[in-house]
Amino acid sequence: xxxxxKITLIVLGVIIFGIAVLVxxxxxxxxxxxxxxxxxKVQAEKYLKDNFNSNFVIYDTLFxxxxxxxxEYAAKVRDTVTETQFLVYYDDEKNHMVDTYIAEKWAKxxxxxxxxxxxxxxxxSTDLYVFFDDKIGNEFGIDPNNPRNYKDxxxxxxxxxxVPRKKSDEDEKIxxxxxxxxxxxxxxxxxxVVMEYIAENGVILxxxxxxxx
Length: 213
Description:
By secondary structure, this protein is α+β, with helices and mostly antiparallel strands. The chain is built from five helices and eight strands, in the order H-H-E-E-E-E-H-E-H-E-H-E-E. The protein starts with a helix and ends with a strand.
């Protein structure tokens, strides 16, 4: 009996130790590496010096510990004139540094053009999100010091509208009118509009509604 109890304690001890090691390893993997943060800052500083004017400054770094982005570390940069915030990071596929400046700048520009329609036709608590491909500026070879306008290019942004309620019979009519606005005033030829039904506490209230144009 004593021998069985002793073996049980040893097995439990090994299991508890193993769990502790796994927990510790997980916690450590969630923490950023200071050397890698400094490395991406140095790379980003050189990239900014070669491609941007003095209005752009690094203010922080981003560590993607959940695999949500196409990078592990990125430098956070701010345009001190427009207050546009974006990322600079090393692209493993292209083997060079890239930035999300044009994507963020154009998203802000488009939001300004369409926000009034959203305010007038949907609830006050509606959230609006505009997304362009992160690397669109690099792919089009756009000079960040002369970002131009998204209307000058054949782009396909995704616009997500989040409302804190369930679907309404009026939603299709609203979205169709919205697409008409995007084509006429925003001068977009293609894109996607997504209506999300999510409560303020994050609970999904209904299936999202998607329309491509």
